[in-house]
Specification:
Elements lengths: L1 H18 L59 H6 L3 H11 L97 H15 L3 H14 L4 H13 L3 H14 L4 H17 L3 H12 L2
Helix pairs in contact: 4-5, 5-6, 6-7, 6-8, 7-8, 8-9
Organism: Methylovulum psychrotolerans
InterPro entries: TPR-like_helical_dom_sf
Protein name: Beta-barrel assembly-enhancing protease
Length: about 300
């Protein structure tokens, strides 16, 4: 009975709820009645026609005949030009020969006959030696006029032999011996044990180096350094790779950090200083490289 009573009580409420419309009637949506705007696409601009190619013919130059060389013959010197080449003494002697002085008939007996006139001495033949001095240039020969009685012939002045300069003594200087070549750089092969993850990355970097991929090996060692940033072995490995990449400045900085971090590892300290020496050699700092080698000898 209670169920029927409750059913009849709830039935009006249910019917009323179904008949109620909460949204109600609404106005219809407005209708868009304007005409659509049609936009026409611009017409394509035709491409300009290519300019015609002009062909220019180049005429070959005619073959020019080879120039002929005409030898020039030396012109003979005039008497005036010959006189200009004489010294004052030779010119005076020539004037004395051209203008003979007139003497008294009584004094002609004191003069020697033309046949007794002294002839200029003939030079003795010279023998050539290994250390002989080259002869001086010969003076121009003057024409001898015809001899007449009563003519005084001047004797030629004795020639002064040229002074012979002493030979220069050249001292033989031996060049200094070249400096010995620097020792060959050999990187360290054995290192202290590493963690499992770091050792795996180091092995992968070694394989990349064997294949010749230095950039990939550098990226792998940098990844291992994110795990152990203060590991001296990783710093030394990365310094070696920077040296192979021709970056000696970065290699020197990393090797210095490796030598500083390797407190008890003397072999690693020694090879770090040797790597510093090699990096300084690549920078043409020979004095700095020698200091680094002396520092490596301490370990």
């Amino acid at each position: 009975m209670s169920i029927k009573r409750s059913f009849f009580l709830l039935l009006p409420v249910f019917v009323t709820g179904c008949a109620y419309n909460p949204f109600g009637e609404k106005e219809p949506a407005p209708v868009y009645q304007e005409r659509p705007v049609i936009v026409q696409a611009p017409e394509p601009v035709p491409a300009p026609a290519p300019a015609p190619v002009q062909t220019i013919e180049i005429n070959k130059m005619p073959d020019m005949p080879a120039p002929t060389v005409t030898p020039l013959e030396p012109e003979p010197l005039t008497p005036e030009q010959t006189r200009q080449m004489l010294t004052p003494e030779q010119e005076q002697a020539l004037n004395a020969l051209e203008k003979p002085t007139s003497l008294d008939p009584s004094s002609t007996s004191l003069l020697p006959s033309p046949s007794a006139v002294a002839q200029p001495p003939q030079p003795a033949p010279l023998t050539m030696a290994m250390n002989a001095v080259p002869p001086a240039p010969a003076e121009p020969v003057l024409p001898v006029p015809s001899m007449e009685p009563g003519t005084i012939v001047p004797q030629p002045a004795a020639a002064v032999p040229p002074s012979v300069a002493a030979p220069d003594v050249v001292a033989m200087v031996t060049p200094p011996a070249p400096p010995p070549p620097p020792p060959v750089f050999e990187p360290l092969q054995t290192f202290a044990p590493l963690s499992a993850v770091t050792q795996t990355l180091v092995l992968a970097a070694d394989k990349s180096v064997a294949r010749g991929n230095i950039d990939s090996a550098s990226a792998t060692i940098e990844r291992a350094m994110r795990i152990e940033p203060k590991n001296p072995t990783l710093l030394y490995k990365l310094a070696l790779l920077r040296l192979k990449q021709s970056k000696p400045v970065l290699a020197e900085d990393l090797a210095k950090k490796s030598a500083l971090m390797a407190t008890n590892d003397k072999p690693l300290k020694k090879h770090s200083w040797l790597l510093i020496a090699r990096a300084r050699e690549m920078q043409n700092d020979m004095d700095g490289a020698e200091k680094a080698r002396k520092q490596a000898e301490k370990f």
